[in-house]
């Protein structure tokens, strides 16, 4: 097999996949704030198997003027004003994340990063709103394309809920730990890597007509 098929930049058309999960103060990206963000960068080994690389988890201060939906806080169990969170401003968090992602993109010879998330529209919309709010001009992430593991799981496993999709393919999932950005990102990354690697193992990659 040509070695290019074992290179990350060739696998996703020079898109660099970054697994993301965000916890927020509500469901409207225009008025509700980020509270937590976790990202996991990915890599390929010499045999072309997709694996986790860097893991980043940050607590974020709500932006000025943002609103809070108490039902969301009951779900994610976050107190935005708890000082022990050691939260930072969202621009500081985004700059830190972008530095890591840029280095990974450069190392893997990719041109643009792409968000991988479960029900990706939610995380993508909040991240794009934060990037705009912070006046970050060099947005590393594709402005509208995502890899949604809910869709991929629905096609491959018949399940769209993260917990059920993980359990269907043999990945453990603890519902008591769900709705934590770090835990959900780890599970989403494991799910995505497993689905991509399973497709390769079945002979689906490289694609043959």
What does this protein look like?
With about 210 residues, the chain is an alpha/beta fold. It has a domain at about 5-150: Nucleotidyltransferase, domain 5 (2-Layer Sandwich). The protein has helices at about 10, 70-75, 90-105, 120-135, 150-155, 160-170, 180-200, and strands spanning about 15-25, 35-45, 50-60, 110-115, 140-150. It has a five-stranded mixed β-sheet with strand order 3-2-1-4-5, sandwiched between helices. Helix 5 packs across helix 7 (about 180-200) and helix 6 crosses helix 7 (about 180-200). Keywords: Exonuclease, Hydrolase, Magnesium, Metal-binding, Nuclease, tRNA processing. It is an enzyme of class 3 (hydrolase). Its cofactor is Mg(2+).
Characteristics:
209 residues, alpha/beta, Nucleotidyltransferase, domain 5, five-stranded mixed β-sheet
Largest sheet: 5 strands, mixed
CATH top-level class of the domain at 3-148: Alpha Beta
Secondary structure: number of strands: 5
Residue stretches low in confidence (pLDDT < 50, at least 5 long) are none
What does the average pLDDT come to? 96
- Roughly what percent helix? 25-40%
CATH topology (fold) name of the domain at 3-148: Nucleotidyltransferase, domain 5
The total of helices stands at 7
From the N-terminal CA to the C-terminal CA, the straight-line distance is: 16 Å
- Amount of beta strand: 15-25%
Sheet/helix structural class: alpha/beta
By CATH, the superfamily of the domain at 3-148 comes out as: Ribonuclease H-like superfamily/Ribonuclease H
Write down the overall geometry: globular
Radius of gyration from the CA trace? 17 Å
Order of helices and strands: HEEEHHEHEHHH
Major sheet: order of its strands?
A: 3-2-1-4-5
């Amino acid at each position: 097999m040509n070695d290019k098929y074992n290179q990350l930049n060739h696998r996703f058309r020079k898109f660099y996949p970054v697994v993301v999960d965000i916890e927020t103060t509500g469901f409207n990206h225009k008025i509700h704030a980020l509270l937590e963000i976790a990202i996991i960068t990915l890599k390929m080994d010499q045999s072309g198997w997709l694996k986790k690389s860097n893991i980043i988890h940050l607590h974020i201060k709500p932006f000025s003027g943002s609103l809070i939906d108490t039902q969301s806080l009951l779900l994610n169990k976050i107190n935005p004003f708890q000082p022990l969170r050691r939260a930072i401003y969202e621009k500081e968090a985004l700059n830190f994340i972008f530095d890591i992602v840029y280095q990974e993109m450069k190392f893997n010879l990719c041109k643009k990063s792409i968000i991988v998330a479960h029900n990706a529209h939610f995380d993508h919309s909040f991240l794009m709103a934060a990037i705009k709010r912070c006046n970050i001009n060099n947005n590393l992430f594709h402005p509208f394309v995502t890899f949604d593991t809910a869709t991929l799981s629905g096609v491959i496993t018949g399940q769209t809920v993260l917990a059920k999709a993980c359990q269907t393919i043999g990945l453990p999932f603890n519902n008591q730990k769900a709705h934590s950005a770090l835990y959900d990102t780890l599970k989403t990354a494991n799910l995505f890597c497993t689905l991509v690697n399973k497709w390769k193992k079945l002979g689906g990659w490289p694609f043959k007509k």
